[in-house]
From TrEMBL:
It holds the Pfam family YlxR. InterPro entries: YlxR, YlxR-like_sf, YlxR_dom. Residues 8-83 form the YlxR domain. This is YlxR domain-containing protein. It comes from the Bacteria. It comes from Jeotgalicoccus meleagridis. SUPFAM superfamilies: YlxR-like.
């Protein structure tokens, strides 16, 4: 029997993707928001597709801020971390 692939919805595109193709973004009880490379940190998790163009478009529209109800400060460091994680994934494993 084939194993079921866990699917999650990207908060930027509202499309379902395999969990492995997404980056988890966490919002803690204290209101801190960060990209979670491990996918296991405590907090409310949302998922973002590993697509540079979509992440850049989301930054311009402030999509993460809207999705996470975070309107007090910019989440530019979070976007930068997501982009860094995408680039890290693109490096071929030796």
């Amino acid at each position: 029997m084939a194993r079921k692939i866990p699917m999650r919805k990207c908060i930027l595109t509202n499309e379902m993707h395999p969990k492995a193709d997404l980056i988890r973004v966490v919002k803690t009880k204290e209101g801190e928001v960060f990209a979670d490379a491990t996918g296991k940190k405590n907090g409310r998790g949302s998922y973002v597709v590993k697509d540079l163009e979509k992440v850049q478009a989301a930054r311009e529209k402030k999509a993460l801020e809207k999705a996470l109800a975070k309107d007090t400060e910019s989440l530019d460091p979070v976007y930068d971390e997501i982009i860094r994680l995408i680039y890290r994934e693109d490096i071929p494993k030796r």
